[in-house]
Amino acid sequence: MTVTGELIAFMSLALVAVIGGVLLLNLTKVVHMIVALVFTFVSIAGIYVMLSAEFVATVQILIYSGAITIIMLFGIMLTRHNDTSEPEEGWIRKTLLFIGVLGFAVVMYIGVYDLDLASGPNTLHENNTEQIGVALYSKYVIPFEITSVILLVALIGSIVLAKKDDEKEADKE
């Protein structure tokens, strides 16, 4: 197996994604968790670029790294919750977590190393944005519109619920 720039880029992006996921699970401050999640999202977008799926990578960055992360931050910061600290985990839990992550990495490496993909004609990366657009607005136009209506209803529902909470707070004062 020869080490190429593509392999180094993939391994780097995969390592950042895994580290971001592990940090997401182990950090204690919510804002730090979301920053780790952003690193994971951006590295996954980099893997999409390596797969010649530039449109999906752009959507990954715009939707997940941008919009979803901001919505999560707003949701966390706007909700009122009791900030009770959890007890500190011991070194046994951290050691078991490290062994589990290392074992998963070894299994994935062995699986990818022995993977033999037949290299045939692949035209998937040619005009992939056009292919997605044609499929989305011709074959899947009804599910696309239903999804937009569901998101709109969810947005209106969250505004109504937030307004009710504000009215209850005003009545208490």
Automatic annotation (TrEMBL):
EC number: 7.1.1.-
Reactions catalysed: a quinone + NADH + 5 H(+)(in) = a quinol + NAD(+) + 4 H(+)(out)
Broad EC category: translocase
Lipid bilayer topology: Multi-pass membrane protein
Keywords: Cell membrane, Membrane, NAD, Oxidoreductase, Quinone, Transmembrane, Transmembrane helix
Record's subcellular location: Cell membrane
An example Gene Ontology molecular-function term: NADH dehydrogenase (quinone) (non-electrogenic) activity
Entries under InterPro entries matching the protein: NADH_UbQ/plastoQ_OxRdtase_su6, Nuo/plastoQ_OxRdtase_6_NuoJ
A Pfam short name: Oxidored_q3
Transmembrane regions listed in the UniProt entry: 6-27, 34-51, 57-79, 91-112, 140-162
Domain of life from the UniProt record: Bacteria
Task performed by this protein: NDH-1 shuttles electrons from NADH, via FMN and iron-sulfur (Fe-S) centers, to quinones in the respiratory chain. Couples the redox reaction to proton translocation (for every two electrons transferred, four hydrogen ions are translocated across the cytoplasmic membrane), and thus conserves the redox energy in a proton gradient.
Similarity comment text for this entry: Belongs to the complex I subunit 6 family.
NCBIfam families noted in UniProt: PRK06638.2-3 (NF005168)
Protein name: NADH-quinone oxidoreductase subunit J
Organism: Robertmurraya beringensis
